[in-house]
From TrEMBL:
Residues 3-127 form the VOC domain. This is VOC family protein. PANTHER family: BLR2408 PROTEIN (PTHR36503:SF2), BLR2520 PROTEIN (PTHR36503). It comes from the Bacteria. Coiled coil: none annotated. InterPro entries: Glyas_Bleomycin-R_OHBP_Dase (IPR029068), Glyoxy/Ble-like_N (IPR053863), VOC_core (IPR037523). Pfam families: Ble-like_N. The lineage of its organism: Bacteria, Pseudomonadati, Pseudomonadota, Betaproteobacteria, Burkholderiales. PROSITE patterns: VOC.
């Protein structure tokens, strides 16, 4: 059905947001990057579009909320291991991000997350198996 996913995230300071994600090891596709937006590949056919707030407003008639004070959703990415989860969270904190909750170990799944410079919540999970049957 769908071939790609693009998560659009308004940013107060696009250059600072780019630097933050570059510190985590992400890159940007120059074909989809300029002074109004930055296309960040997350995986095969998965992208985050970091958008300057004024540019983001051109796509919606709704008010852009402050992700530091309101949640409308969050990005959840899978990782290959618990160690990868922890390493990305550590890089995010070192680059100026915060951790809104402690790491959680549910047995079949390990997760932790961070908030980026704008307050967008990024959850990272390592799926170790299937959840228990109830």
């Amino acid at each position: 059905m769908h071939q790609q996913i693009y998560v659009n995230l308004p940013c107060k300071d696009l250059a600072a947001s780019r630097a933050f994600f570059e510190a985590l090891g992400y890159t940007f596709n120059p074909q989809f990057t300029n002074d109004q937006g930055a296309g960040m590949p997350l995986g095969e056919n998965l992208y985050a579009m970091l958008l300057a707030q004024d540019f983001a407003r051109t796509f919606t008639s709704k008010t852009l909320v402050d992700p530091r004070t309101a949640t409308t959703g969050w990005v959840c990415l899978s990782c290959a291991s618990d160690a990868e989860v922890d390493a990305l969270v550590a890089k995010a904190v070192a680059a100026g991000g915060t951790t809104p909750t402690p790491a959680q170990d549910h047995g079949f799944m390990y997760g932790h997350g961070f908030e980026d410079l704008d307050g967008h919540h990024w959850e990272l999970v390592h799926m170790r198996g299937l959840p228990p049957q109830t």
